[in-house]
Design brief:
The complex is a heterodimer of chains A (246) and B (194).
Chain A lengths: L6 H9 L4 E2 L2 H17 L7 H16 L2 H22 L10 H13 L4 H23 L7 H31 L12 E4 L4 H4 L2 E4 L6 H19 L3 H12 L1
Antiparallel strand pairs in A: 2-3
Chain B lengths: L1 H18 L3 H23 L2 H21 L8 H20 L15 E2 L6 H17 L5 H12 L4 H8 L3 H25 L1
Chain lengths: 246, 194
């Protein structure tokens, strides 16, 4: 005999009532009868096309729920800001979609928090854009003077962006000239002498040494590309910028 | 979340197919829900034959309802079936002029237990549980009995029960608590007497 019963016990007992079912023969007979009745009322089998339309509609109705719609929108925005520049990379500066590429590049740059990385990417985008401009201008069929003037201005802007980034990188490189020549980028310097009794062993981590030759050669390439562009040797200017990408 | 979305999609798909008079889908719906609807009706009317007749009628009414209505009033197919079941039972008793008196002690039509396992001790235990609850359920108030069957026997969620009964979710929670307490009291009373 049971003195008290918890809710869980009771719910478990109630669960046993699931075993109450109609007999299988009646279920089957009723199924057949129902099938005949609905067949007489104009029921049919759906075509593949109708099924496809129904599935699509159902999907849209499910996705129209506010939470799902908002989540989808956020996903599209995130994806387009993160990968939009890759999708639009093939658009050329004289095409209408090019503005979307520029916006996408800007969006991508704003998602990068590290300033060094951001500068690096901005420079990369600018180089690519400048190279695309040279590719468009080197096409002999492209003769629109207004467009050529516009693209030339744009090219100069992009080159300035690259120069600015290179100049930024050159600055710390000059300051680090005093670093011993034998140290490499990954070396850590351990110094046991500096204020050992007060602060214990001090550890200093050296920053990577930026070789001045790299930045000066970059500047040289940019200048040469600029000169070739000014001389309207667009193809050569593009090839020169290609060296920069390499 | 993804599971509920998949369920929602499936439901919308089935309703759209039914709206387009897809008989195969309707028969699948019958296979999926006939047992549950029968059980719900049985606990409402207490007689096997009446429960069978009403179950047949409910499925036919559901088919006609789907063909003639926009279906915006029901969020799920299951909720729609139970809503139609409820109104059909009320209509049936109104039309026949009978009073809805429930007794689950239907000696002439013993209930089929759909379990073929030869676990004698388990069967006896289940049969004892079933018998005691079958005796006590009719003694509960109609709304208590209905909510117990919907929630704990047929596994509807609070949202669906709210839609089927037209009561608020808060009200359903209170009713569930009270109905369980009432049934527990009845069963414990029986134990004390023994």
């Amino acid at each position: 005999m049971q003195n008290f019963m918890t809710d869980r016990d009771l719910i478990k007992k109630l669960g046993n009532l699931k075993e109450i079912k109609p007999d299988a023969s009646w279920l089957k007979a009723n199924r057949d009868s129902l099938y005949t009745q609905i067949s007489n009322s104009g029921a049919n089998n759906l075509s593949v096309w109708s099924s496809f339309v129904i599935n699509l509609k159902s999907l849209l109705k499910t996705a129209s729920a506010p939470a799902v719609a908002l989540a989808s929108l956020m996903l599209v925005l995130l994806a387009s800001s993160a990968y939009g520049h890759l999708l639009l990379a093939r658009t050329k500066p004289n095409q209408s979609l090019y503005i979307a590429r520029e916006l996408s590049e800007q969006a991508k740059l704003t998602t990068i928090l590290n300033t060094t990385e951001r500068d690096k990417m901005a420079s990369q985008f600018a180089t690519n854009n400048a190279q695309d401009i040279t590719a468009v201008l080197s096409d002999p069929s492209f003769t629109n003077a207004q467009e050529i003037a516009k693209l030339s201005t744009k090219f100069n802007e992009e080159i300035k962006t690259v120069q600015k980034t290179v100049a930024k990188n050159e600055q710390p490189a000059v300051q680090k000239v005093g670093t011993p020549a034998t140290t490499t980028a990954n070396d850590d310097v351990f110094s046991a002498s500096a204020s050992k009794d007060q602060t214990g062993l001090s550890v200093s981590t050296s920053s990577p040494v930026v070789t001045p030759t790299t930045t000066s050669s970059t500047t040289k390439i940019i200048e040469e590309a600029q000169n070739l562009f000014n001389e309207k040797k667009y193809k050569e200017a593009g090839e020169m910028l290609n060296n920069l990408i390499k | 979340m993804p599971q509920s979305l998949a369920k929602k999609f499936k439901d919308k798909q089935i309703l759209s197919r039914l709206k387009n008079k897809d008989k195969e889908v309707f028969i699948k719906v019958y296979d999926d829900f006939a047992g549950d609807i029968y059980r719900f009706v049985y606990f409402k009317v207490g007689h096997v034959e009446e429960a069978k007749d009403l179950t047949s009628m409910i499925f036919l009414k559901t088919w006609n309802h789907i063909q003639n209505n926009s279906l915006t009033s029901s969020s799920t197919l299951r909720a729609l079936l139970y809503k139609i079941a409820r109104t059909s039972i009320v209509d049936y008793y109104r039309e026949t002029g009978n009073k809805l008196e429930v007794s689950l002690d239907d000696e002439t039509h013993p209930i089929d237990l759909a379990d073929d396992k030869a676990d004698l001790a388990g069967d006896m235990d289940r049969a004892a549980n079933l018998a005691s609850i079958r005796c006590k359920l009719p003694l509960l108030k109609e709304e208590y009995r209905e909510i117990i069957v919907l929630k704990f026997v047929n596994d509807l969620d609070i949202d669906e029960i709210s839609e089927v009964t037209g009561k608020t979710k808060g009200n359903i929670r209170v009713l569930l608590h009270r109905s369980l307490a009432a049934l527990k009291d009845l069963l414990e009373e029986e134990n004390k007497v023994q």
